[in-house]
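User: Show me an example of a complex going from sequences to structure tokens.

Assistant: Sure. Here are the input components:
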Amino acid sequence: MPDALATFLATNRGRFLEELETFLRIPSISTDPERRPDIERAAQFVASSLRDAGLEHAEVIATDKHPLVYADWLHAPGKPTLLCYGHYDVQPPDPLEAWLSPPFEPVVRDGNLYARGAADDKGQMYMHIKAVEALRAVHGTLPLNLKFLVEGEEEIGGASITRYVAANPDRLRADAALVSDTALYADGMPTLCVGLRGLIYLEVEATGPARDLHSGLYGGAAPNPVFGLIELLSKVKDAQGVIRLPGIYDDVEAPAPAEKASWEALPFDEAEFLRAEVGSLKLTGEPGYSVLERIWARPAFEVHGIAGGFTGAGAKTVIPAVATAKVSFRLVPKQDPAKVVASFRQFVADHTPDGIQMHVRELSGSPAVLVDTDHPSIRLAASAFAEVFGRPTVFIRDGASVPIVGDFAAHLGIPSVMMGFGLPDDGLHSPNEKFRLENYYLGIATVARFLERYGQSA
Amino acid sequence: MPDALATFLATNRGRFLEELETFLRIPSISTDPERRPDIERAAQFVASSLRDAGLEHAEVIATDKHPLVYADWLHAPGKPTLLCYGHYDVQPPDPLEAWLSPPFEPVVRDGNLYARGAADDKGQMYMHIKAVEALRAVHGTLPLNLKFLVEGEEEIGGASITRYVAANPDRLRADAALVSDTALYADGMPTLCVGLRGLIYLEVEATGPARDLHSGLYGGAAPNPVFGLIELLSKVKDAQGVIRLPGIYDDVEAPAPAEKASWEALPFDEAEFLRAEVGSLKLTGEPGYSVLERIWARPAFEVHGIAGGFTGAGAKTVIPAVATAKVSFRLVPKQDPAKVVASFRQFVADHTPDGIQMHVRELSGSPAVLVDTDHPSIRLAASAFAEVFGRPTVFIRDGASVPIVGDFAAHLGIPSVMMGFGLPDDGLHSPNEKFRLENYYLGIATVARFLERYGQSA
């Protein structure tokens, strides 16, 4: 049997790549209202791929924003049910001029498939579908019950799927979820992610004068919203990255000593991380914590964007009437998003400069997640992973947030197997995003093996 | 004679307005490279208007950037020579959506002429030309020698005219200059401006990671250039507006007690200034100084614009690779621009956050100016002004900079009569810039009277 699967996978590599490239050509940027038709095309593409793989009841479900795609196959009584999740939406590709090839014209260079969404998350989501197709082709049936739920708003907060999961626990009932939206710790190293940071994304708008003012005539007497925003945001964290919101660290739990020890054993090369991934003069962050602790187990405040006043070519001597910033807090387990948002609102109220008005808008929020490594789905995923890759699986966390994992835990009471095949330098959210082609194929094989093992476990 | 002049001016009001409207329809935005053909058209318009008014040797002079326009009339031996200055370039009109009528389609509403450049400076510069035309029409000759020098780079630093003045002191030799690029202190109140703040305009670029990073994967360990810029700029001045550059106040001279007393006698209404002009919750600025002192006689630091990261609709969790800000220092008499720039560069070097690189670019710089109120040109301008307006002329300063006034002082050794007819709420550099139509006509009359008086003085 293993040989038949391996043979099928080897024989179909070319087609698997072509199909994924077709998917990647759809610019399904969820934050861009003009891409709405592409969002619809991407949803239809997913539904039709699920049908082709042998799943039933494939359905594009309208929501308040972007559609969900659902499908299932429930003909394995007594076997576990696995809920496979992915997202078909992608981040905006800007800055466009930094791409070596157009973001929505996938191309293979040096064994990597370059395109927006190649790794995050179209390529990884498509692996699930191809694994199902392969199992059916080889076995004529499937080893366990499957449900698929794929969304189009992951990059913009995922409000619709959160509501859908909360409202449809019976339809989605399962024993575990499978989520491939994370990365291998290093190429060739089977990796399960068992912890995620949460995220609160906010917009802060500062207003001052009723209109843009000439800075010569008013500079020294009129409040400046750009500077007001600068003053405020400069106080949210200190130069070392320590967040100054009162109480922000009260609920932060340190990782267990065993988990911390296992991180220290990972082949993490700080100099290489700096050189190959970050590319700045040096790393920064809270003193007293390792880099992995800082990005996996410590909260972080970031300003993602700021805009105000004149920023074109040349000089304009203006005191602008308005300035805005996009900011976020990354959260760790036990931190309550609502509490942090309330604390930030209070901080803004307490530190708004004279003459300025601040308006805070919450764009999205989700708590952090920790998964129990003793759950059967996690154990069997780890062993399938180790079999395909030929070495033991490591358990890590991820500093990014996968809000759906929190929703599955909260509303369905199930853990998520976070089995990702990306690499740390894939450039998610950056220009020249890529997915290592070999990992796409290994991913399909690993998911297929995991489905077999999980089906045999009951 | 006075009656003949007044009659001519009254009879020609309609034509004077139409001609100015034609001038205002040319979108001669000096900072926008795409407007280069409009810059050329505006220069040609000025040259041809000067010729029509009876001036000679009208010439459009090519420079490294935007052309200058020169003309003269030198047939009054023994009489003083006045150098009339103005600029035909304008600020960008953005934000366009805030204009009630298109910025380059002048329209009269409620006695005001609305258009970009109506007051700053096309309308005011055109008054000089119409005053000359009127005097020639009425007297058949001119009462003194005149030179005109009009530039197209005032809004972007005026580098070309600065070079031209420095290189051509003989051609431009004069006894005084006439500059109408300031405002009346209040409507109906004849006002001469005898002090201007200087300006240093700078761009600061912050860089960090080699590319945009996913903030989930790197937040807490990677330096963020947007936050780095925020940290740096927040330190340049404190919450009350006091600038923190070491030594910045060392050369600042307080206004003479008499000048300060005269400012206190001006009908300045702080509540009205706040309500009608600034429109913010309250005024801000250095404690211990009146509003007029703060904007006329104290240095000020402003951030005019800031840009970095994702600022579109929705959410993008990015740590951007680069962020930029446009900033300026307003300078007062005795402050040396070069010294302040050096101090700022040192401050940036001293306060650049870890992991960030800052690059400072100086876009323009000019010192502050104080004019001697005992000079004949100033005395006669004050009396002409008082005659036309029917009340005594007040002496004020202006917080904005008119770099050419410093150039005339430095290279030609002459004072500038800063006789402006704008109003404080004209919205220079803002949407819905306007010029009170009555003041356009009064301005033509006042300039004509001043030329007569100055000619009779010798």
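The lines above are the inputs; the final block is the predicted structure for all two components together. Chain B touches chain A through 101 residues (CB under 8 Å).
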